[in-house]
Amino acid sequence: MGFRCGIVGLPNVGKSTLFNALTETAAAQAANYPFCTIEPNVGNVAVPDPRLQQLAAVAGSAKIIETQLGFVDIAGLVRGASKGEGLGNQFLGNIREVDAIVHVLRCFENGDVTHVEGKVDPIADAETVETELMLSDLESLEKRVPNYIKKGQQGDKEAKIAAAVLGQALELLRAGKPARLTVPKDEEEARVFAQAQLLTSKPVLYVCNVDEGDAAHGNKLSALVFEKAKAEGAEAVVVSAAIEAEIATMAPEERGEFLSELGLEETGLARVITAGYKLLHLLTFFTVGPKEARAWTVHAGAKAPQAAGEIHTDFERGFIRAETIAFADYIALKGESGARDAGKLRQEGKEYVVHDGDVMLFRFNV
User: Fold this and answer.
1) What is the reported pLDDT for 69?
2) Which of 42, 45, 2 is closest to 248 using CA atoms?
3) What string of H, E and C letters represents the secondary structure of the chain?
4) How far apart are CA 298 and CA 279, in angstroms?
5) Is the pLDDT of residue 363 over 90?
6) Is 0.85 surpassed by the pTM of this model?
7) Strands 292-299 and 63-65
8) Does the pLDDT at position 111 exceed 70?
């Protein structure tokens, strides 16, 4: 399962610089003028997880394979995008295809870097983007909901469900609130709501791009963003895109000392990924053996057959059982053999809900 986060924001807030740093590539041209990113650049980044190294050490794995998270660098939005201004239609279309929105906000003053609105105000910037997304959703639903109501009255069950849940979303948008505040009453409504692909239904992570000196603790501007995120039930992190760009050029062994000098314990990449995982309600399970130790990603609440399906569809189709060891037990008992002898290797069936850190071996028959 590939999870993709779309990096959005107004022009010149540091989106492409952050993307380049996160993916350790120069795939996205970072320049001091609007729309330097025309096509959405996509990069997959390995999710840092120290547990993987520990598992590999115990099992003597020849190779380590991290799970990955995708980032899409999307062209900068300007006011009027919902009406096609700038690269509006393309911008909005690209957002529909991601699982979550990483909204980069400029929280630094720099006279050498122009701001499309003429002033540095991250809250206003956030509201500009959110307004354009809401306007686009509003226009879409005002066309669709009346048709669903009409078909529902004629006995169309699916249309009746859509009219109920999307009608709720429409009322929120008319009140100036994002569609993500919609609360489906059951699984059917949740399915229909997800299929609608509303822009403001996407979970949001605010990334406060600050100067190097504010990377450890943020500043007054980032504090305002954190207050906004808390009020919305969103996530927020502080990152210095300039620092991340510098780290991306360093050898791995040099990064720890560099971060320590700046008062940082981890890279911005690690913070963004941790927040992104939390935002998307994801967890990691592992498969471990002499050939490789590998991390896999599933949604929280996923059952064993779904986890098996992440490895191969045949594993899910022919699922018999999962041999499961908790991460802490695997490490403490020095691997599968020790866990088995201690009675810590469990045989789990189709209804088992995967826990973060589970070490799993799937038995299947096709």
Assistant:
1) 82
2) 45
3) CCCEEEEECCCCCCHHHHHHHHHCCCCCCCCCCCCCCCCCEEEEEECCCHHHHHHHHHHCCCEEECCEEEEEECCCCCCCHHHCCCCHHHHHHHHHCCCEEEEEEECCCCCCCCCCCCCCCHHHHHHHHHHHHHHHHHHHHHHHHHHHHHHHHCCCHHHHHHHHHHHHHHHHHHCCCCHHHCCCCCHHHHHHHHHCCCHHHCCEEEEEECCHHHCCCCCHHHHHHHHHHHHHCCEEEEECHHHHHHHHCCCHHHHHHHHHHCCCCCCHHHHHHHHHHHHHCEEEEEEECCCEEEEEEEECCCEHHHHHHHHCHHHHHCEEEEEEECHHHHHHCCCHHHHHHCCCCEEECCCCECCCCCEEEEEECC
4) 13
5) yes
6) no
7) parallel
8) no
Q: Is 260 exposed, middle or buried (0-12, 13-18, 19+ CB in 10 A)?
A: exposed
Q: Is 244 exposed, middle or buried (0-12, 13-18, 19+ CB in 10 A)?
A: buried
The answer to whether 350 and 303 have CB atoms below 8 angstroms apart is: yes
Contact predicate 57/278, CB 8 Å? no
Instruction: Using alpha carbons, list the distances in angstroms from residue 161 to 152, 182, 196, 359.
Output: 8, 14, 12, 40
